[in-house]
Every structure is written in C-alpha cells, then in structure tokens.
Amino acid sequence: MTASGPTPGRRRRGPGMTEVARAAGVSQKTVSRVVNGEPHVSPQVRDRVLRVIRELDYRPNNAARALLLGRYRRIGVVSLGTALYGPSTLLIALERAMQRAGYSFALAGTLEGQQISVAVEALLEQGVDGIVLSEPIDDGTPLRIGADVPVVSLAEGVELTEGAGAVVGADGVAAARLATEHLLSLGHRTVWHIPGPQNWWAARDRLRGWREALAAAGIPEPPLPTAGDWSPASGYAAGRQLARLADVTAVFAANDDMALGALRAFAEAGLTVPDDVSVVGYDDIPAAAYTSPPLTTVHHDTAALADHAVDVLIAMIEGSPRPDRPTGLAVELTVRASSGPVRDQAPVA
C-alpha cells in the first residue's frame, strides 16, 4: 500500500496564487496586484484577498516575483543593534513608510565595531531592491559600500563605490545651533555641552553646531566634560563634573537621556533648574514633557525623515525623479520649563 500524506522530513508545499485566487473568487492577476501593493483594486476586493491570504497562510515566492517583475519589492535596512530612542523609533518609522509604499522590510542589525559592509552583503544575498543605512557610526576608517542597488544613508561619512546613493537626514548641526542660541538669548554668558560618543556622526553634528553658535556669538568654548554614551548614567557623571563649577549656568546635552542624568546630578548638588542652571536636551523623548521640570529639547519629525528617505530610495529604484525636498529636514526647539533667564539678570535682547 502506498502511504498517503507528506513525506517525512520534507516540507509541505504551501498554497499558491491559484489557490488564493480560487478561494477569494478573483483572478490571479488581482491577487498579484494585492500582493505587490498595486492600484486598481477596490478596498472590498483587497480586504477579501488579504483575508484569504491570512487564512491560507499564503507566502509569495520572492524569487519568482523578482524574476517576473525584475524587483523584489523589498528594501533592506542596516541599523545598529541598539534600543536607544532615536535609532529604534527611526527604525519603526522606516518600516511603516516602506509598508505604505508597498515594499516589505528586511533588517540587518550590527553592533558597534562590526562592519556595516558585512550587513549590506547579507541583505544583498537575501534579495533587496535598495538599502537604507540608519545611524552609521565611524570606526576610524572610510566606510565604502559596494552595492549594485541604490543606497540611502541617514548620516554622512559613507562612500558608495558602486551604484546610486544619497544622504538624507535631520540637520543636527542646525539643531544644536538652535539649542545653544536659545540659551544664549536668555542671558547666559556661555553654554556648556555634554557631548555624545564621537564615533557617532549625530554626536559630531551636535558638537559642531554648539561650537558654531558660540563662535558666531564671539564666546570662547568652555571645556567639555567627559563624553557620554547616550545613557542617563553618563549624563549624570558629566552633570556631577559640571555641578562643581561655579560659572555653569546653561547646559546643552546631546540627547535627552543624558540631559535627564544631568538633571539628577544638579538636584543632588543643590542646584535648582532653571534658576541656577538651565538644561536643554535633544530628541524630545516622550518622558521629556513629564520630568521635573519639563525638559526643553530639540524636536525633529522622525516619521517625516523616514518618509523622505524611503521616497528618495524608491525614486532611485524605479528610475523616477527624486522628491524635490531638501536633504536635511527641519528641526524645532520645544521650549519647556528647564530653560530660563539667568537669575537676577534680564535676558539679552
């Protein structure tokens, strides 16, 4: 007797597009349009096809799709393996932007010290139409990416050896100038800075913006405390150093977590914020509005940044004109109670 059922050790073939079309009562072309995010499908039909896809656990064959369409409809992202607020929220925003554009999302995570080029190669082996480099860091050597697909970097310092490329990002230099100028406008004679790790391009941009603002005002740079690592603990350590100095009245921290650590250090030293020292952060994390006092901080629209990066990349993938928008998206200062005029001194006009 011939045994029925699947052969042991062999994976059963999943349902194909024909089975999905039959169960949904539509043509295979309609199923293909739904799967590939194409237009000309009514919402009711799209919902019915998607329901059948879920019920049958249909998984499109990406290799076959790539042969048919010449593309995978998939974008790869290289991101640091970190739970930090900025990179993690940006990663979520990128995935959502890709889904809205009808592309799937593939992630290759790296840890600091690992080669980004290795992660890029892993994505190329999976099959992607383009790659986003999110929050690259500098290990001291030029970052050269050889890829035969378009690449968008969300920071500088990336050299593309092949293919098309673009840099899209928030203007961290302008944002840091804005934060520093805000404190100077309140009458502070200088602004101290708690820098982030200097192998991060974002930290370098914020340090540069702080320096440019002081130079434009003709103010010498005060010495930097020990650079932080983006954590509240490192901001606390830097805050303790600054709290020992009698002339510190204004501090700009390179991110909100370090600013929160500095707030704790100043409180322990008996300093009142903002009467004795004003503090400004960067990122506008959800907790910033609920600290004591609420934190003045730089806000940038992460969703808008992700949308723009994905729009630029898809334009390169599809050979269409790139969106006519600036490469550096605008930032704004969210002013709260942690920054104020110097005590017993009127703000500078």
From TrEMBL:
> Which Gene Ontology molecular function entries are recorded, alphabetically?
DNA-binding transcription factor activity; transcription cis-regulatory region binding
From what superkingdom does this record's organism come? Bacteria
Name of the protein in its database record: HTH-type transcriptional repressor purR
List the lineage, top down. Bacteria, Bacillati, Actinomycetota, Actinomycetes, Kitasatosporales
